[in-house]
Amino acid sequence: MDIRQLDHGQVLSLLPDRDPWGHKGSFGRILLLCGSRGYTGAAYLAAMGALRAGAGLVFLGVPESIYAIEAVKLHEPVVFPLPEEDGKLCRDALPEILSRLPQMDGVLIGCGLGRSEDTAAVVEGVLEQAQCPVVVDADGISVLAAHKDILRRRRHCTILTPHDGEFLRFGGQLSEDRMACAAEYARQWNGIVLLKGHRTCITDGTVGYRNVTGNPGMAVGGSGDVLAGMIAGLLGQGIAPLEAAACAAWLHGAAGDLCAQELGQYGMLPTDMLTRLPRLMK
After folding, report:
1. pLDDT per position as a tens digit, 88-127
2. DSSP symbol at 191
3. Most buried in the list 62, 67, 72, 185, measured by CB within 10 Å?
4. Among residues 131, 205, 141, which one has the least CA distance to residue 169?
5. Dihedral of CA 16/29/49/181: which sign?
6. Fold for domain 25-274?
7. pTM for this one?
8. Where are the alpha helices (DSSP H) in the chain?
């Protein structure tokens, strides 16, 4: 397998130029389906990750019981409420979700979504109908574990972003050669795997990127939500899916490294990473 490693210059070269005649619709329309009662932060961090990665329009669909919280916290995204059951998205949310999909350049589903039969139905419905790349993160991966065959049927790209526990729950096998494990899984399920951890591995089964940025201070709840949002934000701007995931991983880790240098590893937060991202993308 062809294994590569990005540096800052290569990342910048892969970012799309900002068209001086462009408008907000020129830089990607992204749909995020995230959050549940008790997990409002996941939706917030994912949405801000997409915006900080340069997305022009971010639409965030959340369970109606947390809509007011997200709407107050988030000023830039378009936040809208969706039907729920017990604080989680339910099947009744699918008609509105599916009506929005044709206008989207990328979708993220899973951050803080919660696990239930209904959230599994929502994830499955999105993967069946989306005609654009879809990033599946966190609870989206866990609820999809019983419906994996849908990945083989998809004609468009799916990016899975598991940590080790989610990877194992999804049926993956881990060994010292993490890249080989991720690649085997990517080939088996017809997608791209971003296996999080020290030296995050990103692969489509043929080409792999080993990420070298990041530090242990990033091991805090919410860090992965920022990364997932960044991947979606870059996808929506037209970067090829494998490179979008690899660039997001590099930038996410580099932002964490800036935080560690300036704040120390013990007290840094995912929101601190968000504020450092613009310095790395100019």
Report:
1. 999 999 999 999 999 999 999 999 999 999 999 999 999 9
2. S
3. 62
4. 141
5. negative
6. UDP-N-acetylmuramoyl-L-alanine:D-glutamate ligase (3.40.1190)
7. 0.98
8. 8-14, 40-52, 67-73, 94-100, 117-129, 139-144, 149-153, 164-169, 178-189, 223-235, 241-263, 270-280
